[in-house]
Structure formats: structure tokens, C-alpha cells
Design a protein that fits this description.
The protein has 2 domains: 48 residues; 124 residues, Immunoglobulin-like (Sandwich). The longest helix is centred in the N-terminal third of the chain and has 49 residues. The chain is rod-shaped. The chain has 229 residues and is an alpha+beta fold.
Length: 229
């Protein structure tokens, strides 16, 4: 049928009536444009949030992995160090040093390396009780002299002097008497030094007295023995 057909060019219908065409107003176009822009912004924000969340998750996983690795490294037990090979003597060190043959109280005892010792004086005194464990009473005060016949200075900090009495060689107790002057410091080559030691010895037990001198740890012991008046 041709009666209801519109004339696109004239805007009239086939029956002669004028058709009304409504164009969008400017306000409506603006609203449509703003809605489109808002939709684009929303989509962009959603995409940005998704990207940021993915980066945060990857960073968190990487940090957790690094922390786990660091913790595993910190708590690991280091391998044991190799046992060093001994370079010095391996003999038993708690054995007493050898003793040289005994000499008289007024004789000279020699170590054999240039070190010699003598006892210039042995005195009978009434020892004073100074310090804990000391008991005043009969005592012997011994002057010990060491001569350094070596080519080098010798330390006297490790000199040990001991005394015993009687045939069974009962150890005499050292007495911290005010007159006591032990060895110490360095003894230059060619020099000599004197020291004084005091020991508690009963007056009736001096028929046989032994004095032992060691000028340094591990050195042969010098032994002096004999009666003391």
C-alpha cells in the first residue's frame, strides 16, 4: 500500500500530511556526552585498580619470599670449622718437669743453658702471720739468686721456689711474711737477681731441708738439699 509512505525529502507523508521530526536538544547532547565520559572514567579506574592490586600482590609475594629466604639463611647452622693441625709439642703438659741432680745448700746449681742458681742466705726467723691462711711461727727465710748467662733477657715472672723438710720431704707452707720478695720482671743477659721466700718449718725438723727452684715453666728443676742450723 502506498498511502502510508513518508516522503523523506519533504517531510510529508504520502497522503499530504506533514511529519514532525524531533532533533536532540543541546542539553540532552551534553548529558549524553558527560555520561559517556563518566563511563570511560569508571572503566579506566576499574582497570587501574585491577593493575595496582596485581602489582601489590606480586610485591607482597616477592617480599614474603625474600623474608622467608632471609629467615632461612639467618637460622641456618654454619658448618664446623676444620680442626687446626697442632704445630707445637704434643706431649702431655701436666707432667712435672725433670729434676736435676741434687746439690748442697751452699753449692751452685746449673740448668745447662747458661742459667745458674745459688742460695746466698738461709735464715731462721719467727714468721709473721700476714694474710688469710698464714700462721705465725718458726720459719726459714731463703734468699735465692739467679744469674743469666745466656745471650738474651729472661723473664723471671714464672720463677717457682718450693721447700720441703724431713726424710719424707713434707711440703713446707709458704708464708706471706712482710720480708718476702718474689722474683719478677726481666733479667738482662749477664745480670743476676735476688729474691726472698719464707716458709713455715718446725724448729726440730731442719736436719734435712730441700729447696726446689724452677726459673721458668717446663725448665728442669734445680734441687738444693742439706741441714739448716
Amino acid at each position: 500500500m502506498t498511502g502510508g509512505t513518508n516522503d523523506a525529502a519533504t517531510g510529508k507523508s504520502a497522503d499530504g500530511a506533514t511529519a514532525t521530526v524531533t532533533a536532540p536538544t543541546p542539553d540532552r547532547r551534553r548529558r549524553l556526552l558527560l555520561a559517556g565520559i563518566a563511563a570511560v572514567v569508571v572503566i579506566a579506574l576499574v582497570v587501574l585498580i585491577l593493575v595496582l592490586n596485581g602489582d601489590d600482590k606480586a610485591t607482597g609475594e616477592a617480599g614474603a619470599s625474600a623474608s622467608t629466604t632471609s629467615a632461612a639463611t639467618d637460622t641456618s647452622v654454619p658448618p664446623p670449622l676444620p680442626t687446626p693441625t697442632p704445630t707445637g709439642p704434643t706431649d702431655v703438659v701436666d707432667q712435672p718437669p725433670p729434676a736435676l741432680p741434687e746439690v748442697a745448700l751452699d753449692a751452685t746449681a746449673a740448668v745447662g743453658n747458661g742459667i745458674v742458681a745459688t742460695l746466698p742466705k738461709i735464715e731462721s726467723i719467727e714468721g709473721s702471720a700476714v694474710g688469710p691462711g698464714n700462721i705465725a711461727g718458726p720459719a726459714l727465710r731463703v734468699t735465692v739468686r739467679i744469674e743469666n748467662g745466656t745471650a738474651d733477657a729472661v723473664s723471671l715472672d714464672g720463677v717457682a721456689v718450693n721447700m720441703s723438710y724431713g726424710t719424707d720431704r713434707t711440703p713446707a707452707s709458704p708464708l706471706d711474711d712482710p720480708s718476702r720478695r718474689p722474683f719478677g720482671g726481666l733479667l738482662a743477659a749477664g745480670d743476676s737477681a735476688d729474691a726472698i721466700y719464707v716458709f713455715s718449718v718446725p724448729a726440730g725438723a731442719r736436719d734435712s731441708v730441700t729447696i726446689e727452684v724452677g726459673y721458668q715453666a717446663g725448665a728442669p728443676l734445680l734441687l738444693f738439699t742439706g741441714p739448716v742450723d
